[in-house]
């Protein structure tokens, strides 16, 4: 009688899952870097005093947030190449993850920026500081630290959304487990290992975010 969970088989498939895990982590890290940078740019543009700038950005953010990530991946992978812009499946997936979560990060940034006391802006104006110096030296150092936990939640959420990359032929962690299962007709071990790996890395990411939040508070991030 075969055991429900075969440890020998689990160790045998672990290297293959590890290779796929590298792709999953790569997509998550690069996608999140794109999301936090692009999200900040979108948040600043949405708060621009010129309506011809802020209005289109607001429409773009709401459009991205209101459409499924999978649809956006399909569009970038199947439709965008028809215009001549061709990327690898992994690069397309990273772009889709980054743009999708940038829209959410933009709203988080906007909430942090709007929570900065108005007196800070008035003081910067009284000191004749330029808008750029006011944003970089006064607003952002106070606005970003409080929203780090929310950004950390999106990091974990993005990590758990990486299985969608299999829809555009990226062999990430879950897809690799399905390939192993279809080849060996054993799904218990690969799927169990995938669940444990997702859990472990999610906990590590959450711990890292808490450490970053504590570091920002230690060095004057809180107000």
Automatic annotation (TrEMBL):
GO BP annotations listed: amino acid transport
CDD domains with a match to the protein in the record: TM_PBP2
Topological relation to the membrane, as annotated: Multi-pass membrane protein
Residue span, ABC transmembrane type-1 domain: 17-209
Pfam families: BPD_transp_1
First and last residue of the signal peptide: none
GO molecular function: transmembrane transporter activity
Gene3D superfamilies per the UniProt record, alphabetical: MetI-like (1.10.3720.10)
Keyword Membrane among record annotations: yes
Broad class of where this protein is predominantly found: membrane
GO cellular component: ATP-binding cassette (ABC) transporter complex
The keyword Membrane appears for this protein: yes
Compartments it resides in: Cell inner membrane; Cell membrane
Alphabetically ordered keywords of this record: Amino-acid transport, Cell membrane, Membrane, Transmembrane, Transmembrane helix, Transport
Sequence intervals crossing the membrane: 20-45, 191-209
PROSITE patterns in alphabetical order: ABC_TM1 (PS50928)
Family note: Belongs to the binding-protein-dependent transport system permease family. HisMQ subfamily.
Name assigned to this protein: Inner membrane component of binding-protein-dependent transport system
Species per Swiss-Prot/TrEMBL record: Bordetella petrii (strain ATCC BAA-461 / DSM 12804 / CCUG 43448 / CIP 107267 / Se-1111R)
């Amino acid at each position: 009688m075969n055991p429900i969970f075969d440890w020998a088989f689990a160790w045998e498939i672990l290297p293959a899952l590890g290779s796929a895990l590298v792709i999953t982590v790569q997509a998550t890290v690069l996608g999140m870097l794109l999301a936090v940078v692009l999200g900040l740019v979108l948040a600043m543009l949405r708060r621009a005093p010129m309506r011809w700038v802020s209005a289109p950005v607001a429409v773009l953010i709401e459009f991205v947030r209101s459409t499924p990530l999978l649809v956006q991946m399909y569009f970038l992978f199947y439709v965008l190449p028809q215009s001549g812009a061709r990327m690898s499946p992994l690069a397309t997936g990273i772009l889709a993850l980054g743009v999708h979560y940038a829209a959410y990060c933009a709203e988080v940034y906007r909430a942090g920026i709007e929570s900065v006391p108005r007196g800070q802006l008035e003081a910067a104006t009284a000191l004749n500081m330029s808008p750029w110096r006011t944003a970089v030296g006064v607003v952002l150092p106070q606005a970003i630290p409080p929203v780090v936990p929310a950004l950390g939640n999106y990091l974990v959420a993005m990590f758990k959304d990486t299985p969608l990359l299999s829809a555009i032929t990226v062999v990430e962690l879950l897809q690799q487990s399905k390939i192993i299962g279809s080849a060996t007709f054993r799904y218990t071990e690969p799927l169990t290992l995938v669940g444990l790996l997702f859990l472990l890395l999610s906990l590590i990411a959450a711990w890292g975010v808490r450490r970053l939040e504590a570091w920002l508070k230690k060095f004057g991030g809180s107000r």
